[in-house]
Amino acid sequence: MNAIADSRARLVMLGVALVVLCLLPAFVEKYYVQFVAKIMVMAILAMSLDLLLGYTGLVSFGHAAFYGAAGYVLALLTPQYQAANFWTSFPLAIIGAGVLAMIIGFFVVRTSGIYFIMVTLAFAQMLYFLFHDTKIAGGNDGIYIDVRPVAEIFGWQPFSLDDFVHRYYVVLVALVVVYLLLRMVLRSAFGHVLVGIKVNEHRMMSLGYPTFRYKLVCFSLAGAIAGVAGYLYSVDAGVVNPEYLGWHLSGAVMMMVILGGMGSLVGPMLGAAVWLLLELLFQGMTKHWQLLMGGFVVLATLFLPNGLIGLADIVSRRRDTSDGHD
Amino acid sequence: MTEVVLRTAGLTRHFGGLTAVSGVSLAVRQREIHAVIGPNGAGKTTLINMLSGDLPPSSGRITLLDQDITGLSANEISRRGVGRSYQKTNVFLPFTAFENCRLAAQSRLPSSMRFVRPALAHRAVNEAAEKALAAVGLRDKAGTAVSTLSHGEQRQIEIAMTLATQPKLLLLDEPLAGMGAEESVRIVELLRQLVRDHAILLVEHDMDAVFALANVLTVMVNGTVLETGAPAQIRASKQVQQAYLGAEEGA
Amino acid sequence: MDLYTFLIQLLNGVQYGLLLFLLASGLTLVFGIMGIINVAHGSFYMIGAYLAWSLSEHLGSFWIALPAGIVLTVLLGMLLEWLLIARLYQRDHLYQVLLTYGLILVFEELRSLLWGDDVRGIGIPGALSASIPLTETLSYPVYRLWISGICVLLAVAMYLVIQRTRLGMMIRAGSSNREMVQSLGINIQFVYRIVFAAGVTLAALAGMIAAPVSSVFPGMGNQVLIVCFVVIVIGGLGSVKGAMVAALLIGLVDTFGKVIHLDIGGVKVLPELSSMGVYLLMAIVLLWRPAGLFGTKP
Q1: Is the ipTM of this complex over 0.85?
Q2: Across the interface, do A298 and C298 touch by the CB < 8 Å criterion?
Q3: Residues B163 and B60 sit within 8 Å (Cβ to Cβ)
Q4: Residue A53's closest chain C neighbor by CA?
Q5: Do B94 and A324 touch (CB under 8 A)?
Q6: CA nearest C119: which of C42, C40, C219, C51?
Q7: Residue-wise pLDDT tens for chain B (251 aa)?
Q8: What is the model's pTM?
Q9: Residue in C closest to A113 by C-alpha
Q10: Is A1 on the interface with B (CB under 8 A)?
Q11: Of C6, C7, C15, C17, which is closest to residue C249 (Cα–Cα)?
């Protein structure tokens, strides 16, 4: 009964949040609209990591690699001084990120525990150096996306990515779609296997599940969704550079997931919002704001292991993990 | 003569310089409970680990219904129809009793790479899970988290999960360990029913249960088979009494 | 490539490898004995280098700066263990990664506050500034040989301490069964504090002795950490022999990769993509031996 009440309350909260997000651009100025859009992009990235971290137990420390890769796909697909087509570049970027994740996953998913953490970081850094040290894509400085993609299909342009409000809504739609997609996947037979793997992989194998395959598919899916976020961010920023692949971002996303509460999808969204707000707050206080971020990370890790959602659960009622997840 | 479901030939396993199991050859027949007994350290768990694919043999062969399954991985062996329960309870503690069995039953789908349909909508899977849960007598605990169940009940879930995979051959590693008297009786009854259309290999220390259930006994000592035969023969065997049963009476 | 150039690159590769070994052994020590993964390990390499630079300037001599830096790092390590690391013991590796990631951010900013963001350099200390002449034009710096020598000395010392002393026995026992050791009255808290301090000091020491031959710059810690991870993945966690083999392998591959010219089908592979070399190596090892060349799956 708790689970039903829980999910009903959650549904109401999400509904309210959705309404607020839909109406936001009508009530606030450009700066805040773009800031919230940035939060939503990070929320997509954080949810994709939660699939790995919170549901499958794969601690990937190189997740930003797939985020950055999608951005680079867009940059490379954009001809100089011309626009790429949104309807082709977006799917290509997502597929590119997913395929990259599948390739890297093929190597890393065969490891576990500490090894997995180390090799995901190592491969992400390999990509970082590939883009940083070579001329493939502008090296250290990155590539500018001079002209934003055009969303033209059969002569009709439903929206313009040059308009920051249109960009906002594109991101919002993407966020909702990704959320619903992940909910569906997690409810499916596949999703249940993932959670089983997290709790007791050995038993899953002895029950007949070839767990490597499932982890690899999960890793690829998470990478593809990270690509969604990477593409959208690059469209907004107009530039891609190697830092998009870097481990500062990978670490930050991990923090967002934990901060919000991993294994809940909603938690990471919350975590993304809190993290970016904190960043803004600290940046306004001092040039050395990273010191405060770092200190916050240390404290949050020690005192908020179940994140903010976990805190809310302790406060309200004991969570009924009857089917292992929502 | 009923058909042989599982046969091993010269099964051996070394760990560095130590030989845990050496040259074990046995056969488990359909509708038969084949119990493997022996003192601690006799290699029984290593043997079962090789049969379930948790450990590859160093040498020897394992055949399941004329198919060579030597060295296959645990998940491949499970798919061929072998169900294993563990001595150390190996369940999904945060999940409910039902979900434990459901996940086990789901493994029998041709593939779980299904992303759209909710898992709980697979009726056949749900039914198999309910059946397994009922077989061990825990239907009323379906919605309870396994972590809150008693140790004996967790052992029952352990067995239920194995049943939910609808195996042809059951490998049960000390299923009665840590169970109370009432639960033990229930499991013994369950095994009596199961053996009607399964083949069962049982590792157990509970001698009362073993002699009540087993059709064939294999006695292992120091990694090798000391003797194999019907319960009466084993009980009467002088060498078995010397090596093992004598010590067991006092235990 | 002529013989002397080859010799020089070989010595450089070995020296780099030995430094990596020093770093990796610190990380492995902490993980193997305490079960803690410290991603801020690389930060200590940076801290060591900056300490060496700053203390040399203030105290006037590299030879005073070195022991002073070691003492400071040991104290810092013990403080950190007492305050923070001790709370991570029973926690999932995820939380260890996150907390130490937070420490990286903190250390980076502290460094920026204390010593700025510029690239620094230290001169090779006078006593070791000579070079051994090899040919008319080529010579090899004595200091680099000294670095290799120190690393080998430390490796031997580590081996002796862990295998032959009571402290080492406690350390080895601690790694297998914490509760049992505790019940024997051995102060596991103390042992862990020493081990952690030793682990990070090894990293700092590597940074200190490497400083005169490589530049001292803000990102040096993170850069070297990744290579450290690759060493451990290739060598195998918990294996000192593996760490040595892997470190030397990587040291040589990396060094030679930078000087060899290799074109494959018109594509300039080396030295342009030399930094890829170690990752390629890692990928191959992962396919062949996922637990590392000498590793035992934890």
Answers
A1: yes
A2: no
A3: no
A4: C94
A5: yes
A6: C219
A7: 678 999 999 999 998 888 899 999 999 999 999 999 988 878 899 999 999 999 999 999 999 998 999 989 999 999 999 999 998 889 999 999 999 999 999 999 999 999 999 999 999 999 999 999 999 889 999 999 999 998 888 999 999 999 999 999 999 999 988 888 888 888 899 899 999 989 999 999 888 889 989 999 999 988 899 899 999 998 888 888 887 765 555 44
A8: 0.91
A9: C93
A10: no
A11: C17
